[in-house]
Amino acid sequence: VDQTATVTTTLEDSWFWDPENNVSSTSSSSKKDDNESPSSGTELTTIPLEAPASESEIIERLRRQLNETVQQLKKQQLENALLNEQLVQVGRENRELNENIEELDRQHEVVLENLVTGKRELQEKCTALEVQAKHNTDEFEAQLGEMQRRFERLEQSYTQSCQENVKLQTETEKLTTELERIVCENVEAVAALDGQLNEMRRERTELNESYKTLQKENEELRLKVVEEPFETVTKVGEDEEVILLRTTIDDLTQRLEDACNERDNLQKLTAELDRSDHIGRLERDIGELQNELRSVIIDNSVQLEAKEKEYDEKLAAMRQENQTLRESITTTENRAAGDEFDTRLHELVRKLFDLDLTQLDELEERLHTLKDADSKLLALEKKMIDSSKEINFLKAENSRIQHDKDTLNADLMQYEKECSSLMKNNDHLIAEIENLKCNKLETINENAEDSIVVLEKQLEESHKINRSLEEEYREINCKLEEALEEKEELLTKVALLEGNQSEQKLHSRELEQALSIARADKDTLERQLEDARLSERQHTEELNAELESVRAQLTTINEDHAALVHKLQQLQQSSTDNLHTWESKLEALQGELKAKEIELEQVRESTVSSQHSDTELEEVRNRLQSELTAAQEQYQMELEKQKQTIDSLAQQKADLVQLVTTKHNESVQYHAEIQRLNQLLNEHNEQASQPCSECVSLREKVQDYERLSDQIQFLREKSDILTTNLMTEQTNQRLALQEKQELLEQKNSLQRDLDRLRQHLMEIEEAHTQETVELQQRYDETRGKLASLEEEVKKSTNALTSASIRANQQAETLQTQYQLLLQQRDELNAKLSSADDRDQKNQASLTNLQCALEQFQMNKERDIELATVNIRKDLERARSREEQLRGDLKLFQQQLNDAKNGLLAAARISDQLEISQVTVASLKNELAKRDEKYAALEHRLQETEASQADKVEKMLVKNLVIGYVVAPNASDKQQIMKLISTVLTMDQAECIKVGLNRSQGGGSGWFNSILGHASGPEGSAGNYNKESLTEAFVKFLEKESAPRATDSSSLLNIVAPVGSQHAAQAAAPLSTASTSAPASSGGNMATEIKPILLPEAMLQQTTFQPARSSSSILKDILSDS
């Protein structure tokens, strides 16, 4: 028992006899085993013929044979245990397959429910959208009519606005001319300021020239002082004066340097202040002028708008009166006999109330644009409906793809489980085969060899199955990826369609807003018409008052114009006063500049005393030249100014060179004098060494010499002081050069700012001039409009006086016409009320028809549900058949348990096992076919639902209703009503409500006949000529819509005959019909295997014929009748 348990545990996952795809191989192997089984049974008892031996040898042989038989019996028992385990595994697989089928049934039910709900929702949405579309079309038609009326009414106001626009243009032209004049005056003031600045610059250049001349004179004086003979050595007073002069010169040089620095700073500050102040004040003046101009323009625009509104209202009233007068004139023309009077009236009317005929084209164009807009709205609504349908379709596809994805995932999981189990079984089988080969090499026989061959074949088949499953797994993965990509594409499409739908909704909202605005305008126009009707009687008095108001407005406009002119004059005076103040300030600054320039000239005289400045000045010059070249490349507009600065630097260099040469000459002269004094000292010493009678004079000379030596030391000290001063001056010069460079950079930046500000000012001036020109043009246009209005008012007053006389004469005729018009209005109101009643009746009939159609659709859905119920019943029958098959499998197990009695029974059980494998394979094939048929049924269900959704055409129902209404006899009406009831598939209660008794009719609806209650074709053909028209039509529909079965032979009938060990076993033929479960045949299963059958409902595929059109059905009926 323990051994059998271990064998069962190892072979629970065995799979090698699962011949789903290789039935032929298993059948061939079974045939081979059947053919070889008798020989294997005989070989167990065969004894080879040998020479007679002793009894001990015979006993030993018999014992050996007994041992061999015992071993063979043990092997057969093991094989039987293995086969039992295989049977258990086959039963488990069948259970799993049944569970999978139940899950598929559940999923199918869920899908059908979802489809039904989705279909109902789509039908509801379609009906709602159709109602909305109809309502929208009615509203749009009404709105188009209103818009046309509105445009007809707005023609008059448009002509009036055109005339007023012309007048306003004349006034604006006048204003623009005045503004141009103001701008010209401002430009002249700016030009005068520029001239003053140029004069200031010229004066500055003259001061620079005078400064240069003074420098030259100072240098000449210094040269003269240096070149004086050195004979005044003895003159102590003159030397002291020279020393004092030099000290004063040093002080003056320092002061000059300070003054130069201050002058430069002052120049920069003054320039910056002048520019910034001037620019700021100019900008302020311009801003004030612009603000004043804007305020004036705003005031004028407000006044003009108010006047335009008043004129619009007045002109609208005038036009309405003119229209009434024209209508009265036309009526009087028809009645009047005199042609001359008519021509005069025509001329007067044309003179008084001329309208631009050219504006009719514009109005027609506007009507065309409105019609185009209406067509665009309709197209947008259609697009909205189509897009909503597409979105719903895409959502349905998305749900379907999601369902397919889920099913594929489930299949994948099952395949993975099967692959894993197959791999485990494969490993177990390989291990078992190796164990069998190792343990049974000595005691193996032909039957065992055959079984090993079968096992090896099954292993090969299992490998093939494994590979095929792996390939299917890969294909399913590829399909999954493709489905995911399709899903993503569909989601993107859905997003795009939703975005388009949102845009279309926004556009529709905008159009609805525009329609609401148009309706509001319509209401306002109707109110204005009512007000105009009330103001017709008072219009003559209001015209005089309007003329007076127009004159008063003209006077106010003239006063405003004079005030504007006065303001402009005040602005000009303020600008001139500002210019005078600036001129005085500039003169004061010029005086200060002159004083500073004098101080600078004095300071520059002291900057020339430097010995080593030549090299530094050359470096500075080179540096300045490089900077100047860069500046020339960057700023081409500043070439002239840079040239002036270069000339001034060259002059300074020349001055410095001259000062250096003078200092060098002075040092040379000092050196010569020192040498001369040394010679005199040597000579004096030689004379002192000789005896001299003139000792007194020599002593005096010695004193003079000592004095001179003191002076020389003093001069040397002075020269040392001068060298230190030169070094300090050089450092100061370097600092000054650095400051100069910084100042130049600041100057460049200021120049850039100036250029930018000038450009800004030019742009502002250009904009200002343009605004002034436009204002002047508008002013001129308004002036012209006012003049034309005055002329028209004068003409209208003259015409009104003549027209009032005639109007009084024609008042009586107009009153009579007014009464006639009132009568016509009452008649038209009565006609309108009757038309409204008819419209309401038509709407009621439409609602009734819609209800009937909805009821028809509900009946169709009910029929489809009944069909689905029948299909489910067929599935339940298939399940019951599967339960029968399970019972058959149990019987197989009982047969296998009974076959454990011996080796012969074991061989037969092995054969029956192979047969059971074949049956399992056939069952799996049948399951696959069922799945295919199930998918085909689902597809056909969807097709039938799609085809039966809108099967009844509107024309057929319309023709039947018209025939019923037009039918002269009650019998014809009764027959037509029966036709309508059959077409609309009414119930018994509905037929009774209508007045029909369907109990004697031709049965239920055509769709119920599809499900299997129709009579045979022969009986229907026999009684066809005796029936009435309605019954013939019903029979025809039932015959055409009956399902057509397609025979399919997909079942195997496997019979295992009763025989001995030598009987051959073969596959059974195909069976055709069996519905009862073989539960009572338990005792006979040891001799016979029952065939496995399926119900006919699963074998016959119901194919629905496509829906025929109403015209073809009626033609067939008429031809039969």
Automatic annotation (TrEMBL):
GO terms for molecular function: small GTPase binding. Keywords: Coiled coil, Golgi apparatus, Receptor. Residues 18-45 are annotated as: Disordered. InterPro entries: GRIP_dom. GO terms for cellular component: Golgi apparatus. Residues 18-29 have a biased composition (Low complexity). It is found in: Golgi apparatus. It comes from the Eukaryota. One of its GO terms (biological process) is endoplasmic reticulum to Golgi vesicle-mediated transport. Residues 947-997 form the GRIP domain. Residues 56-157, 190-224, 249-335, 360-838, 920-947 form a coiled coil. Its main location: Golgi. PANTHER family: MYOSIN HEAVY CHAIN - RELATED (PTHR18921), THYROID RECEPTOR-INTERACTING PROTEIN 11 (PTHR18921:SF2). This is Putative thyroid receptor-interacting protein 11.
